[in-house]
Amino acid sequence: MKLAVMTRSATLFGLICRCFEADGAVCHRFADDVAFARAIYRDEYSAILIDADTGLNPLRPVLARRACYADRRAPLIVIGAGHDREAIARLFDAGADDVVLSPVDAREVMLRVHLALLRVQLQSADSSDTLECGAYRLDRRNCTVHVDGHAVRLTPREFAIAWLLFSRRGEYVSRRQIAGAVWSRSEDIIGRTLEQHIYKLRKKLELNGPWGVHLRTLYAHGYRIEMTDTAEAALEESVESVESAESMDGVDCVDSHGVALETLHDDARTAAAMTCLAPMQPVAAPAAPPRAEVHPADSAVARNAPAWGDSQAAFAASASSAPKAPYALLSAAALAARTRGNG
């Protein structure tokens, strides 16, 4: 028998080792969440024991990974829990299979662990292997998501991310929590791999609202699954298309009072969106410049036209009235240059 023990207390770890010494058990102690989750994933452990003083958040890597991958190979027992009923209930909700209350008794530890091992051996698959959210139904047994009745196959890691997000819908799940649960690694090591998986997941499952579910991203918070109304999703899609067009054209979409579209809500936002989507009014084409017309000499227009001599006299008169100063200055300068040349 091999036990994985998560504790910072050397005293508690020594007690656990003595409890199962007669069974020839090998106990491995861990103090880091990520290393703990990675070891449980890679190695086969008979049972998992966690010190209650280290906390038991459902998004801890070891618990989140068990939930995402339906990993029930080994029972999880919390050691040293308090006597508060609500706190104990939260431990079971977080994924604990059994709880040993404080103060810790060696005989109770042995009994709880052996009973948990027996239950794991006897338990069979149940309805907890499926998860439903609107038009989405997730099945952990074959890594399949049914969207409105149509099956969508995902890779194991894509499905693990989907299960983690859908099981915590309405809550933001951070990049660090996803990296620890799915890869058993830190966020820094995963890098852009997580973003690529999120992109593929959003595309495969159409998590942009058409089926009433939206995958939101918030900087420094993480990712969240939200239930949305179909009409609202259509409006948001149209608004996103408007904003995309604005970013290309460099034009801000505002209402008649100069209020930005992002600041409007409900009916006002709908009206503003429809205004932005309305087709532009056609602009009249500019008038063509006048063209010279040629008329026959015996036509009425030619007979009534003024004589060319009159037009030539008028042109000469307008030319004579133009200022002569530039020409006079030019002549003086030329004369001075000529004088210096002669001298």
Topology (SSEs and partners):
Layout: E1 2-6, H1 10-19, E2 26-30, H2 33-42, E3 47-51, H3 61-69, E4 76-81, H4 85-94, E5 98-101, H5 106-122, E6 130-133, E7 136-139, E8 144-147, E9 150-153, H6 156-167, H7 175-183, H8 187-190, H9 193-204, E10 213-218, E11 222-227, H10 230-249, H11 266-277, H12 300-304, H13 308-320, H14 325-342
Parallel strand pairs: 1-2, 1-3, 3-4, 4-5
Antiparallel strand pairs: 6-7, 7-8, 8-9, 10-11
Helix pairs in contact: 1-5, 2-3, 3-6, 3-7, 6-7, 6-9, 10-11
Number of domains: 3
Can you name the CATH architecture of the largest domain? 3-Layer(aba) Sandwich
CATH topology of the largest domain: Rossmann fold
Uncertain residue segments: 237-266, 324-331
- Tell the overall outline: elongated
- In terms of DSSP E residues, the strand content is 15-25%
Strand arrangement, major sheet: 2-1-3-4-5
Number of strands: 11
Describe the fold and architecture.
The structure is a single chain. By secondary structure, this protein is α/β, with parallel strands linked by helices. It has 3 domains: 2-123, Rossmann fold; 129-227, Winged helix-like DNA-binding domain superfamily/Winged helix DNA-binding domain (Arc Repressor Mutant, subunit A, Orthogonal Bundle); 230-276, no CATH class. 47% of the residues lie in helices and 15% in strands. It has 14 helices and 11 strands. The chain has helices at residues 10-19, 33-42, 61-69, 85-94, 106-122, 156-167, 175-183, 187-190, 193-204, 230-249, 266-277, 300-304, 308-320, 325-342; strands spanning 2-6, 26-30, 47-51, 76-81, 98-101, 130-133, 136-139, 144-147, 150-153, 213-218, 222-227. Strands 2-1-3-4-5 form a 5-stranded parallel beta sheet, with helices on both faces. It has a 4-stranded antiparallel beta sheet with strand order 6-7-8-9, covered by helices on one side. A two-stranded antiparallel sheet has the order 10-11. A hairpin with a 2-residue loop joins strand 6 (130-133) and strand 7 (136-139). Helix 6 (156-167) packs across helix 9 (193-204). The radius of gyration is 41 Å and the shape is elongated. The model is unreliable at 237-266 and 324-331 (pLDDT under 50).
